[in-house]
Amino acid sequence: MPELPEVETVIRSITPKIIKQKIIGIKLNWDKTLYTHSESELNKSLKNKCISSVSRRGKYIIIHLQNRFLIIHLRMTGKLIFQKKNIKPLQHSRFEILFNDKSKLIFTDIRKFGRIGYHENLNFLNNKLGLEPFSKNLNTKYLYNKLKLRPGPIKGTLLNQSIIAGIGNIYADEILFKIKVHPQIPAKTLNSKKLSELILATQSILKNAIDSMGTTIINFSFDKNSSGKYGSQLKVFNKNNEKCQSCSNYIKKIKCAGRGTHFCPHCQKL
Ligand SMILES: [Zn+2]
């Protein structure tokens, strides 16, 4: 599933192409993709609206339309592809935004888990999501207060979008390796020094991943078929039975917080 760096990469790739575009309509090819309106309702609402900007909150893409918001979650296999006029239809197209100049923004989604909603404000996102990883308010005090009552493993806490928004399975494993914390350690036992390391590691790993345009393991691509380059910098994720770059012991894969989790048993002791 695309995580924060991949979503940010998609936004950076589509923004210059769709900004200031005037919408003439939408086309819905898979009803469940659009969870707030019917095709005809949204066609009425969006007609003649202009895209003013595109932003991100957690793993959500937000298209700003003159005080209204189209909010997109790519989930497993969703992709946003910009097409100029007169190009053949794309496979797995679920939703299309049609522009005045005959270009389109097409949401393709093989597995059909991706969702798009049209909202008057961003309250529903802000109510369910925690701080952004690069927020100035993300500090040890915030994390301490959020984690102090959580007996569950730190891995699950990093995946919990209501604490820090945007981290998924790949980057959670990389962050914990960087600060040498075992993924199964109860979140509430981390001291403030470790919490501080956790914040810095989160920010540096996500920033590097954004600079590398994300990680492509299976599905992620942007533009027509560009892939992320951060895969070559991964230290533990997807490296089961490979040698740890720090200590030469072998990386292990376990199930933690319901997810396949990679770590070095020597560097990250329980
Ligand atoms: Zn190691």
What can you see in these coordinates?
This protein has 270 residues and is an alpha+beta fold. It folds into two domains: 4-128, MutM-like, N-terminal (N-terminal domain of MutM-like DNA repair proteins); 140-263, Helicase, Ruva Protein, domain 3 (Orthogonal Bundle). It has helices at residues 4-18, 39-46, 123-128, 140-147, 154-159, 169-178, 192-211, and strands spanning 23-28, 53-57, 60-65, 68-73, 78-83, 93-99, 104-109, 115-119, 252-256, 259-263. The strands form three sheets. A four-stranded antiparallel beta sheet has the order 1-6-7-5. A four-stranded antiparallel beta sheet has the order 2-3-4-8, covered by helices on one side. Strand 3 and strand 4 form a beta hairpin. Helix 1 (4-18) packs parallel to helix 7, helix 4 (140-147) packs across helix 7 (192-211) and helix 6 (169-178) crosses helix 7. The chain binds zinc ion (ZN).
Please give the structural blueprint.
Elements: H1 4-18, E1 23-28, H2 39-46, E2 53-57, E3 60-65, E4 68-73, E5 78-83, E6 93-99, E7 104-109, E8 115-119, H3 123-128, H4 140-147, H5 154-159, H6 169-178, H7 192-211, E9 252-256, E10 259-263
Antiparallel strand pairs: 1-6, 2-3, 3-4, 4-8, 5-7, 6-7, 9-10
The structure holds zinc ion (ZN).
Residues 244, 246-247, 249, 264, 266-267 line the site of zinc ion.
